[in-house]
Amino acid sequence: MPSSPVPLSLTHARRIWLRAQRLDVRAPFSQRGELGGDEDGDDGANAVRRAVEHLGYVQIDTIQVIERCHHHILWSRIPDYRRADLHCAQTTDKTVFEYWTHALSYVPTRDMPFFLAEMKQHRASPRSGYRNVPPEDVRKIIRRVRDDGALSLRDIDDDIEQEKDHLWGSRKPSRRALQAAFYDGALTISERTGMLKRYELTARHFGWTQTPKVATPAQCTAYVLDRALRAQGLVSLDSVCHLDAPRKPAVRALIETRVRRGELLPVALEGEGGAPHWVSPADLAPLPDIDPGTTHVLSPFDPLIIQRKRLHRLFSYLHRFEAYVPRDRRVFGYFALPVLAGDQVVAAIDIKADRTRQRLQIQHWTWVGGGSAARHQAQIDEALHRFEDFQFRK
User: What is the CATH class of 1-22+216-288?
Assistant: First the structure.
């Protein structure tokens, strides 16, 4: 075991991360048997399962300037992806479900024990928006689902609206009760149509006769670290515990233990300063160059993009999400999408879907880093055509 960090160039660091994110190739989850795929088939729902299991989670978001981010993230790694594939994985195969990571996300059903621990914690100490939900309201909504079957908020028409007690809260008591029961684990989202969610008893949805065993705190810490190592390759304390600062002491202690065992190596990224990083020894092996023609139009909520400081450190590109920025202060545009060419972010393109004419409208185009029309225009145009096809694919 080295006594000092292993030097690592930014180029090598980027390739480790891109390989872990499966953005170094066009179709990592669509081909039979590749990357641990099923030998008995490579249908769309199985591709979704494999992608979500590898990435650990796929963020959900309500903005629909273009296709919603959960579909976009999956399409970036499954070029033949259809929206129905995710519906099948969630509702029919039940290989993914929804819960909170750093945001509401699709997560693998195989990881349920770790999320049961989060649900148990929520019952003991509810999230801020649900601390004042009366227990009788929660019991009432659970009884209704038990008796009448899965329901959505639209099925409830007897609410008396109340004042919000939280910025993102709801005036409908039934909605707050549904969401409280969801975070407690009594209810799960059994189906989603657009952004309309149907809630079902968790045990009934998954067909449980006995609740799976809840993971221990130590197991949860190991899970979070292993998930980051799988999906990020190269990790820092901030990248493992993204928007989860209370977990940092336990993760740091586990990293130190694995370093002593030789299971992780500290690395020194090229350039001065920055947080410490670690990598598994096997991931330090030389990686081939990424074909610059491998081009991805990414969601601003893609797991490669969402950790802005990490992205800036490794790619020298600081993404700006400007949907909530006044128009006169925007640089990239309302909903700019980063464009990855090879191992470089070369452009940010503000795009809007014209659903009437079934065309993409480019609102604003910004070349960044080493991006230029002479070097990248042809492959970006081809990527945009593929992206347009995905937007309006049935």
Answer: mainly alpha
